[in-house]
Amino acid sequence: MKIFHSDTFVLPLPEGHRFPMQKYALLRQRVSHAALVAASDLAIPLPASDADLERAHTPDYVQRVQLGALTPQEVRRIGFPWSLEMVERSRRSSGATMAACRAAMCDGFAVNLAGGTHHAYADHGEGYCVFNDSVVAARAMQAEGQARRIVIIDCDVHQGNGTAAIAAGDPTIYTFSIHGAKNFPFHKEQSDLDIALEDGADDSTYLQALDRGLCQSLEESHAELAIYLAGADPFAGDTLGRLKLTKPGLAARDRMVLTYCRDAGLPVAITMAGGYARNIADTVDIHFATVRQAAEMCA
């Protein structure tokens, strides 16, 4: 199994910024130390090109991100200050999901140790998301002839509003989001399938709903490839989550998604998406368990 990372491209964030950027380096270090895959299978991806990005985003938006020509309001909506490092990391994150899709088509599972930037729309970013790596990767696989139909399984605690909006009206990309009903974004878009859970939903409630959602989405999508956003933020200790899943519950979630996809003959590219636990070690634990689960099932 191949794993892609871009944590060497660090964003220069202001002191006290709430986004836990250090989780990516900590996760890559833990994956490396655990030797889940051979050293040659832990790789830095190529960046997504303008052509790759423009299958999901407007050329004007891509150009303005590159040139630093976003308005102050657009920068605030993203939540990161603009920098050349921000542009490069965003391109690499999309490139990593593209690379994970290609590798999954060969090996069954592959992982991007970042990605899941599902709040980015065609013409703007928001919620710490600059480019929508899931749709960028899905359309790259279609353009390369690797897969015609893709299902995006979004288990981040926040609805994948940008993904839903970009893919709206496109029957070849099926969007399934299971998320907190009252959490960000407060204006939800319409996915092909949305399951909205009330605050405080526990392991049992979540897993029963996910089981129904997976059965429906895999049946309706007729997909040849899955992109799985394995957010750590449904965790009970997450500062932005509002759900009450335990670490064993999240591990059961991962097994369910990967098992259902494997049994349906679907390759899976896995991205990490959100995670904002009070203790960053909890977020890293949850992401690491996802990667380990995939590695074990791929062995």
Task: Describe the structure in your own words.
With 299 residues, the protein is α/β, with parallel strands linked by helices. It is built from ten helices and eight strands. It has helices at residues 22-34, 50-53, 59-67, 72-78, 84-107, 133-143, 161-167, 203-221, 247-263, 280-298, and strands at residues 2-4, 42-43, 109-112, 150-154, 173-180, 193-197, 225-229, 268-271. An eight-stranded parallel beta sheet has the order 2-1-3-8-7-4-5-6, sandwiched between helices. Helix 9 links the parallel strand 7 (225-229) and strand 8 (268-271). It is globular. The N and C termini lie close together (8 Å). The mean pLDDT is 95.
Summarize the topology:
Layout: E1 2-4, H1 22-34, E2 42-43, H2 50-53, H3 59-67, H4 72-78, H5 84-107, E3 109-112, H6 133-143, E4 150-154, H7 161-167, E5 173-180, E6 193-197, H8 203-221, E7 225-229, H9 247-263, E8 268-271, H10 280-298
Helix pairs in contact: 1-10, 5-6, 8-9, 9-10
How would you sum up this structure in a few lines?
This protein is α/β, with parallel strands linked by helices and 299 residues long. The protein has ten helices and eight strands.
Q: Which labels suit this protein?
A:
single chain
- Sheet bearing the most strands, described? 8 strands, parallel
- Secondary-structure-derived class: alpha/beta
**Strand runs, count:** 8
Strand content: 5-15%
